[in-house]
Amino acid sequence: MLATISEAIEDIKAGKFIIVVDDESRENEGDLAIAAEKVTPEAVNFMAKQGRGLVCFPITGQRLDELEIPLMVQHNTSRHSTAFTVSIEAKDEVTTGISAFDRAQTIKAVLDPNTKPDDLARPGHIFP
Question: What pathway or pathways are given for this protein in its record (predicted)?
Answer without folding.
Answer: Cofactor biosynthesis; riboflavin biosynthesis
